[in-house]
Every structure is written in structure tokens, then in C-alpha cells.
Amino acid sequence: MKKLGILGGMGPESTLLYYKEIAAAYKRKDKNGNFPALTIEIVNMYEMLGYCKAQQYDKLAEYLLQGIYNLEKAGVDFAVLASNTPHVVFDVLEEKAHIPLLNIVEPTYQAMKEAGIKKTAWLGTGFTMEQACFKKPFVQNGIYVAVPNETERALIDKVIAEELEFGIVNEPSKKAIDGIIQRLIDEEEIEAVIMGCTELPLMYSNEKLPIPVFDTLKYHIKGIVDYMFKE
């Protein structure tokens, strides 16, 4: 089986979730009930976010590549970024890495395509909601992607940065985001919502929304485990 490399720490909660969910899914799939071989390389979330906010994408790519190269030295067969945000430089990383990298957005797009969704919304950090590259595979294939307005984006970003990144789920924050989703349903006529932040699903782990939820982390993990068993 292929050995996985996870570039994590962006933030810690999602990295823990990646490990837990990958290990469980792998164990279910392995005929002997084994756990997967993998290595986790942690980078500094704040340094990564600093490059994003300053739009210093060359420095961001260079910083992340060092982590990927460390994973290569650990003997992994392929690697993933355990966060949506750093995928803004995914194309550069994919070109310069010496091992395959699995993108977080592509499997979510494929699942949405199979479900026949034509209008959706992207919820995530302020950065990902404002960057066109995260919506590219959807838009290029005829799926309309709405995003919250500026005030709503600021609220969601604050909740992610100050609460969810630390594993904190506050009911008032959840109600506020529920309200944003409902407005998008009413005014943008969205048929689904993309949880484009690996921490957002923490808020909806035991809850249902009035429309389907496409969790980028969930579909990424499925693709990762399938790839580990791929001949």
C-alpha cells in the first residue's frame, strides 16, 4: 500500500481530523484491519496565513515546498495539504514536487457534478471565499458558485480563526452562519453548500441543513484512502 504524507498544522484541529478519519477509513478497507502508513509534517499556520494575506504567493509556495520535501525524505509515496487555503498555490506545488499531490477541490467538484447540482455556495475562510481559483472547476463546468457578502465573510472568517481553529463550537456563531446559508438559499437560490474550510464541519457534525452539504475534507479523505489502495 502507498505511504501517505500529510502537510498539516493549518490548523491543528483539521490535521487531527484528517488523521482520525483516514485511519478509520483505511482500517475498514484493509482486509487485515491494519492502520495506514503515513507521516505528518507540521507547518506554522500563522506564517502560512501571513503569506496569504500579504499575497506573497511565491514565498508561500517556497515555504510549503520545504514541508513537502521533508515528507519526500520520509519516504512517502504521495502527499496532501490538510487545509483548503494553501491550495491557492497548488499548481506550483504540484509542478515542483517529486511525488503526486492530491487536490482538495477536485473530488468535491466531481461529487457535486454527479449529484446534478447547478447552484451552490462556498463557505470558508475570508481568503478562500475571495479567491477565484477555489471555484474554478465548478464555474468552468457550469456550476454557479455564490459567496456570502463582505460582512458575512468577515463574520465567518472570525468564527473560523477565533473559535473553530481551536475546536470551539459556539451556538450563537452557528446560528449566525445558519442565517447566512438561509439568506443564500432565499436570495441566490442555491441548491447546496460547500464547506470549503476543513474546520467548518466541526460545527455541523451532528446537524442537518435544509440543503445538501459538500464537505471538502470528507471528499478529500475518500480520495486519499482510495488512492492508497490503488494499484
Q: What topology does this entry show?
A:
Elements: E1 4-8, H1 12-29, E2 38-42, H2 45-53, H3 57-73, E3 78-81, H4 90-96, H5 105-115, E4 119-123, H6 126-130, H7 136-139, E5 144-146, H8 150-162, H9 171-188, E6 192-195, E7 213-215, H10 216-229
Parallel strand pairs: 1-2, 1-3, 4-5, 4-6, 6-7
Helix pairs in contact: 1-10, 3-4, 5-10, 8-9
The appropriate CATH architecture of the largest domain is: 3-Layer(aba) Sandwich
SSE pattern: EHEHHEHHEHHEHHEEH
Number of helices: 10
In the CATH scheme, the class of the largest domain would be Alpha Beta
Query: And the CATH topology of the largest domain?
Result: Rossmann fold
Describe this structure in words.
The chain has 231 residues and is α/β, with parallel strands linked by helices. The chain folds into two domains: 4-103 and 219-229, Rossmann fold (3-Layer(aba) Sandwich); 105-215, 3-Layer(aba) Sandwich (Rossmann fold), CATH 3.40.50.1860. 50% of the residues lie in helices and 13% in strands. The chain has ten helices and seven strands. The chain has helices at residues 12-29, 45-53, 57-73, 90-96, 105-115, 126-130, 136-139, 150-162, 171-188, 216-229; strands at 4-8, 38-42, 78-81, 119-123, 144-146, 192-195, 213-215. The protein has a four-stranded parallel beta sheet with strand order 5-4-6-7, sandwiched between helices. Helix 1 (12-29) links the parallel strand 1 (4-8) and strand 2. Helix 1 (12-29) crosses helix 10 (216-229), helix 3 crosses helix 4 (90-96) and helix 5 (105-115) packs across helix 10 (216-229).
